[in-house]
Specification:
about 350 residues, Rossmann fold, 9 helices
């Protein structure tokens, strides 16, 4: 068992990479040597970690000698190319990209839902573990304890996804367009084809023949894999909204077994990784700003689905907000690494 693994952060100059470092430091994750990797563009850049200055190196096939844990967030093509190389030389990879999520034999892990699937993987002995899509993680932290209690039969989710999910460039686009519009100038669309500031649009991932975009399908198939049950019926509509860094989701649930809003609320309050904000009297419920910078997924609007009354089915609606860069990405990956320690 390694007490202080040598750690590489791949994609360290990106929005998630930066958060990896913040979370490792906050949680006092034990680190032997630290290696910071990004593309050639960033090689030589200086980054501070816990009072020490580190130089960013270019990611190459030789980057992983002596590395025990590699946290990847540099996009799926970099993961496809370099994660197997890292694993081959003994680095255990936690990969935030979509490259290996649906690969048989590669665990796809939300610690609150399926921590048991990483049994047998040891730091410094290679292996790849996939971090789920941010919207899937933020959905499954609150829905898994309800599923354990009353078995979800069908789930309908609509997302309100922030800029951070599309990386640093998207955050900059939202920032600059907002300034341009307020200054009375035409907003410049560099990353997204449509105006982002003061607007919203269907998620910017590819649309398939059946009309679903890939983000929506990730929420469906990743949930099946994490819960180990393909029979659960899930449909999703994913939308990008002009919010900087936390995703929100409206989730309608239909259950096999009896459950109501009171039991659901008690269950959620007792579950790990969740803060319930559900103040009907004052109309105070989770917002993405509340969730920004927080570890917990915030849950509110917990209510019986009135459309199911009288038909013998149990339905609930909830509204959740979670920091996409933290629990939706870097925090979940670091929690996986902590399980390996
Ligand atoms: P760089 O800053 O040098 O381009 P984001 O998701 O915020 O856009 O960040 C992506 C991260 O992944 C950045 O750190 C970026 O580095 C890094 N990255 C992207 N492509 C590659 C690649 N081919 N090799 C190494 N790092 C990459």
């Amino acid at each position: 068992m390694l007490s202080a693994p040598n750690v590489a952060v791949v994609g360290v100059t990106g929005a998630v990479g930066e958060e990896f470092l913040a979370i490792l430091a906050e949680r006092n994750f034990p680190i032997g040597d630290l290696k910071l990797l990004a593309s050639k563009r960033s090689a030589g850049k200086k980054i501070e970690y816990q009072g020490k200055i580190f130089t960013v190196e270019e990611l190459t096939e030789d980057s992983f000698d002596g590395v025990d844990l590699a946290l990847f967030s540099a996009g799926s093509s970099a993961s496809k190319k370099y994660a197997p190389v890292a694993s081959e030389v003994g680095a255990t990879v936690v990969d935030n990209s979509s490259a290996f999520r649906m690969t048989d034999g590669i665990p796809l892990v939300v610690p609150e839902a399926n921590a048991d699937t990483i049994k047998g993987i040891e730091l410094g002995k290679g292996g790849i573990i996939a971090n789920p899509n941010c919207s899937t993680i933020i959905m499954l932290v609150p829905v898994t304890p309800l599923h354990r209690l009353a078995h979800v039969k069908r789930m309908v989710v609509s997302t309100y996804q922030s800029a951070s999910g599309a990386g640093r460039a998207a955050m900059m686009e939202l920032d600059s367009q907002t300034r341009q519009v307020l200054d009375g100038k035409p907003p410049e669309c560099k990353l997204f084809p449509q105006q982002y500031a003061f607007n919203l649009f269907s998620h910017n991932s590819d649309i398939g023949e059946e009309g679903y975009n890939t983000e929506e399908l990730k929420m469906v198939y990743e949930t099946h894999k994490i819960w180990g049950d393909d029979s659960i019926k899930i449909t999703a509509t994913c939308v990008r909204v002009p919010v900087m860094r936390a995703h929100s989701e409206s989730i309608n649930l239909e259950f096999e077994d009896p459950i109501d809003e009171k039991i659901a609320s008690e269950t959620l309050k007792a579950a790990p990784g969740i803060t319930v904000i559900d103040d009907r009297d004052n109309n105070r419920f989770p917002t993405p700003l509340d969730a920004s910078g927080k570890d917990d997924v915030l849950v509110g609007r917990i209510r019986n689905d009135i459309s199911r009354e009288g038909d013998g089915a149990c339905g609930l609606d909830i509204f959740v907000c979670g920091d996409q860069l933290r629990k939706g990405a870097a925090l979940n990956a670091v929690q996986i690494a902590e399980l390996l320690l």
